[in-house]
Amino acid sequence: MQDHEVAGLLAGEAGDLLLEIRDRAMAEGWSPNRLREVGDRQAHRLLADRLSGLRPHDALLSEEGHDDGGRVDADRVWIVDPLDGTHDFGRPGSIEWAVHVALVVDGSPSAAAVCLPASRRLYGTAMSTAARPSERDRPVVITSRSQWGDAEEVAAAIGGVVRSCGSAGVKAMAVVAGSADVYVHPSGLYEWDACAPAGVAMAAGLDVHGVDGSRLEFNKARPVVPGLVISRPEYTVSVLGALRW
After folding, report:
1. Which side of the chain, N or C, has fewer Cβ within a 10 Å radius?
2. Domains annotated on the chain, with CATH
C-alpha cells in the first residue's frame, strides 16, 4: 500500500475501535475517566502495532507513547494522535473527537489522514481539493472554546463570525469540508495535534501556517508548533495580518 492508503486505513481502524470501546462503555456504565483512559491506550496500541507490521523501518511519535528522541534522526516518522479530543470522547453523544495519522518526511507531512469516527467521515491526503464553502452570509472562523479572543480579531478582519468546538482535527476538517473558512488556534500545539490536520488541509489546497505566519516544521526535538492557522486562500493575508496586530 502507498503511504496515503496506510494513513487512511489505520486512522479508520482506530476510529472503529474507539466506537466499539465507547459502545461497550455506555452499555456497561463505565466512568468518563475510564472510557478516556481505555480509549487512549487501546487506540495507541492498535496504531503502534499496525505500523510496526506495515512500516517496520519507520519511527513513531505518538501522544500516548514513549519518546526517546531517536526519531529526530529518522528519515520517515509517523506522528499520530490516537484520540484527539479525549475530553469530548468521554461526553455522551459528542462527535468532537478524532484520530490523527501522518507520515513526516524532511519536516513536512507527506501522507496524512484524519478520521472523525462519530461523524463517519475520513479525510486524507489522497483526496482532491477542499469542498466549496456552504452558502452563508458571512465567513466562519472556528476555534477552541477557550480561545475566542484572537478568533474574534480574525473574524472582524474578514467580516466573519466565530464558532467553537473541541478537537483540532474536527475544527481543521470543518475548513476542508467547507463548513468553516478559517481555523485559528492562537497558542502552541503538540505536533500530534497539528500534523495530520495540517497535512490533509495542505493537500486539499488550503493555506497552513503557524499563528506567527511561519511554515510549520514537524519531527523536532521538542515536538511543538507555534499555533495553527488553516485558511481558505482568499482570506489568508487578512487572517495573518489580524493575528500579527
Report:
1. C
2. 3-124 (3.30.540.10), 140-243 (3.40.190.80)
